[in-house]
Design brief:
7-stranded mixed sheet; binds pyridoxal-5'-phosphate; Aspartate Aminotransferase, domain 2; 3-stranded antiparallel sheet; 396 residues; alpha/beta
């Protein structure tokens, strides 16, 4: 059979994730120190795991309401009000989803008519561009440049707005750079959204992981913004719950309803045991992740210091658990750097281009890795960089 002709054109034409291609080289190699995968090195805190175990023991194995357990939505509303300073009604404005991934897909599919333009900032999470395309939208990337510490300028967003623009998508702190948007710039983006009657989708998945006493500000909390914002959040990162697949969307009720329609037909509900675990996570609140956050902050300090010392300029990111060093001085492309580092020193980092074309010349390192492994990886990377430079010198 000619399968190519059977596969939907817009899926056939979608490129495979560059990250996946790269990680196929790493799979099955136990000798590799991975700074590659964006997930916490520690398992979910025990109290959260225990709550799920107890619920399974009690036989809680059924579907829940499509919206998610009411007790969980009430707790989400309380947490979001406390943390983001925006109040949402648990009954009509919150939807529990299978990770932020599902919430993002629902938001895009609920809003986009074919051809609508979605502005987002690059470098960004690898799913954004394909998710927009899978919803038949047109992705419009705006650079968040290293010259501005990977924040996006409202003036650049403004230049990208056309009569077809429907959505601005934001993610701060950002994967893969750890960049944070200054509040004044976020205010200007809010003003643009209001002026041009746009919806904002804000992916706040790293919002708890902020360093140097920073306090998170969500665009949803600005005057006039709640009514035009879909706030996405989840449990994967701060609560170390990537495998539970738990997230949620907070949105004005007509938008929540539209997302709910898709969710009820394609997903039914998030798994009940994961919802019970998430409820426990929210009850623990900050105490569940504060120790991890402080430890990430120390690891960030180490990795930023080491990368700069070996001549790979690296901005000191204010949040998330990634650094995005500039490797151009080695004379290698991002892909060559990552592949050779893996081959020669068994250290895995991710090349920058899958996060957007502005990522060429950079690699992403995740520092949610044990401190002793970060030290070892930095020693090996320094050796590698020195060897590459020596070889370049000798070839002259
Ligand atoms: N959004 C961003 C910016 C991410 O970096 C990730 C995962 O790395 C996700 C969403 C996916 O989150 P979840 O595990 O909740 O689906």
């Amino acid at each position: 059979m000619n399968y190519e002709s059977k596969i939907a054109g817009h899926i056939r034409d979608l490129p495979r994730s560059g990250i996946r291609d790269f990680f196929e080289l790493v799979i099955g190699r136990s000798d590799v120190i991975s700074l590659g995968v964006g997930e916490p090195d520690k398992p979910t805190p025990w109290a959260i795991r225990e709550a799920a175990i107890r619920s399974i023991e009690k036989g809680q194995t059924s579907y829940t309401s499509n919206l998610g357990l009411e007790s969980l939505r009430v707790e989400i509303a309380r947490y979001v009000e406390d943390f983001f300073k925006v109040s949402y009604d648990a009954k009509s404005e919150i939807l529990v989803t299978v990770g932020v991934s599902e919430a993002l897909d629902l938001a895009l599919r609920a809003l986009i008519n074919p051809g609508d333009e979605v502005i987002y900032h690059e470098p960004c999470y690898v799913s954004y561009n394909p998710s927009i395309q899978m919803a038949f939208g047109v992705p419009v990337a705006v650079n968040a440049s290293p010259a501005h510490d990977f924040a996006v300028l409202a003036s650049d967003i403004e230049k990208a707005i056309t009569p077809k623009t429907k959505i601005i998508m934001l993610n701060f702190p950002t994967n893969p750079t750890g960049g944070i948007e200054p509040v004044e710039e976020l205010e200007k983006i809010a003003a643009l959204a209001i002026k041009h009657d746009l919806i904002v989708i804000t992916d706040e998945i790293y919002s708890e992981l902020l360093y140097d006493d920073r306090v998170h500000t969500s665009i949803a909390s600005f005057p006039g913004m709640k009514e035009r914002t879909i706030l996405l959040h989840g449990f994967s990162k701060a609560f170390a719950m990537t495998g539970w697949r738990m997230g949620y969307a907070c949105a004005p009720s007509p938008l929540r309803e539209a997302m709910m329609k898709i969710h009820q037909y394609c997903m039914l509900c998030a798994p009940i045991m994961s919802q019970v675990a998430a409820l426990e996570a929210l009850k623990l609140g900050r105490s569940a992740f504060e120790e991890m956050r402080l430890s990430y902050e120390q690891r960030r300090n180490t990795i930023v210091r080491r990368l700069n010392a070996m001549g790979l300029p690296c901005f000191n990111p204010g949040g998330a658990f990634y650094v995005f060093p500039d490797i151009r001085s080695t004379g290698l492309t991002s892909k060559e750097f990552a592949i050779k580092l893996l081959e020669k020193k068994s250290v895995a980092v991710v090349p920058g281009p899958p996060f957007g074309s502005i990522g060429e010349g950079y690699v992403r390192c995740c520092y949610a890795t044990a401190p002793e492994l970060i030290d070892k990886a930095m020693d090996l990377m320094e050796e590698f960089v020195n060897e590459v430079r020596a070889a370049k010198q000798a070839a002259r």
